[in-house]
Amino acid sequence: MTTPDRPRTLVTGGSRGIGAAVARRLARAGHDLVLAYRTDAEAATRTAAEVEALGAACTVVRADVVDPGAVDALFEAAGPLTGVVSNAGATLHIGPLADTPVDVIARTVELNLTSALYVARAAVRAMSVSRGGSGGVLVTIGSGAATTGSPGEYVQYAAAKAGVDAMTLGLAQEVARDGVRVVAVAPGIIETTIHADAGEPGRLARVGPSVPMGRPGDPAEVADAVAWLMSPEASYVTGTTVRVGGGR
Ligand code: NDP
């Protein structure tokens, strides 16, 4: 596999929210981008145009990350990579576990943990030096919910995101001598449509004041942490989760 001249990073869930902010921030840091989206082609195209206006080359690919075949096809389409941001995820539902339908539990774990494992597997296959890659960085977007447990809201999501932290630690050690760093970022309460999409339009206003800094975060503040983790300045950082949660 050839080494790209510039950093070349795949972002899943790159169409909107945190993923789109990460794409814009990495473009400003000199990365070329591959943006993966699932349903919102219009948003993906809009983000791609913003990224290109910042001087980056950008390819848009449709892929549902819960489908392992689609993940492999996505990496095939992406070509050589030096970075992967595994960001696609959703809370899907708000309420106590006892009242959560079993299919919602299954879909939540599938989207927030199983798909992260598929993407991580493909990422280390693409970037490991021993497999012909040029080395690189995998950043998975976890959640502060992994350490709060999110009682009464989405315990199944918190459990899945805790799995991301364990995956990050174990996989980082597996590939530490193969040129690949593996890290996670755990956002707190960030202003995106994820909260309303889970069925409670007013959630941001309800939980925002509980953040020690007194406000929800901006997706750009998560993107800054991702960009640092992907940079040479973080060359000795692997196997850990960085919280970006305003103290929450
Ligand atoms: P958004 O709802 O704004 O964006 C979610 C993104 O994920 C979209 O680009 C969507 O693509 C994509 N996506 C969803 N399901 C799939 C799938 N099956 N396959 C491929 N892509 C998919 O959410 P956020 O930006 O807020 O969330 C990004 C990440 O951050 C998630 O992992 C989330 O769990 C995590 N997080 C967010 C927090 C917050 O407060 N916002 C807090 C903690 C963690 P499309 O639109 O094309 O369907």
Write up this protein.
The mean pLDDT is 97. The protein has one domain: Rossmann fold, CATH 3.40.50. Strand 4, helix 4 and strand 5 form a beta-alpha-beta unit. It is 44% helix and 15% strand. The protein is an alpha/beta fold and 248 residues long. Helix 1 runs parallel beside helix 2, helix 3 packs parallel to helix 4 and helix 4 packs parallel to helix 6. It contains nine helices and seven strands; from the N terminus they run βαβαβαβαβααβαααβ. The chain has a seven-stranded parallel β-sheet, with helices on both faces. The protein binds NADPH dihydro-nicotinamide-adenine-dinucleotide phosphate. The site of NADPH dihydro-nicotinamide-adenine-dinucleotide phosphate has 29 residues, from helix 1 and helix 7. NADPH dihydro-nicotinamide-adenine-dinucleotide phosphate binds next to helix 1 and helix 7. InterPro entries: KR_dom (IPR057326), NAD(P)-bd_dom_sf (IPR036291), SDR_fam (IPR002347). One of its GO terms (molecular function) is oxidoreductase activity.
Record the SSE blueprint.
Layout: E1 8-12, H1 17-28, E2 32-37, H2 41-53, E3 58-62, H3 68-78, E4 83-86, H4 102-127, E5 136-141, H5 145-148, H6 155-175, E6 180-187, H7 194-197, H8 203-207, H9 219-230, E7 241-244
Parallel strand pairs: 1-2, 1-4, 2-3, 4-5, 5-6, 6-7
